[in-house]
Design goal:
With 105 residues, the protein is mostly helical. It has helices at residues 2-9, 20-43, 50-72, 88-97.
């Protein structure tokens, strides 16, 4: 949970780096929270905008976390755009994000 809180505290910090544990633990909590909100969204009509608001609010902190993680493995911030390549881009990004610190330095 500390890594997830750190993601929010450093939400505008696009410099520096985040190690593999920081990234994947924050991703896990982000995924769980998003999944729970999505289930609530589909089960009730009361919280129609809750999932969408959380997604929009967490977009910048999550992107800054990814930029720091790419920097930690020796890649530039612009490597975040690799995920825009259909089908294979996300797999390449996951492979890089799973690498140990400084592998490509």
């Amino acid at each position: 949970m500390a890594e997830y809180i750190s993601m929010w505290k450093r939400f505008v910090d696009f410099s520096g780096s985040s190690n593999r544990r920081d990234y994947w633990m924050a991703f896990l909590f982000h995924f769980v929270i998003s999944s729970v909100l999505l289930i609530i969204y589909y089960m009730t009509s009361q919280s129609v905008y809750l999932y969408h608001i959380y997604t929009l609010v967490s977009l910048v902190p999550y992107i800054s976390l990814m930029v720091r993680r790419f920097r930690d493995i020796g890649k530039g911030w612009y490597y975040i755009f690799i995920m825009l390549i259909p089908i294979i881009g996300i797999f390449i990004a996951i492979y890089w994000l799973a690498q140990p610190t400084g592998r490509y330095s």
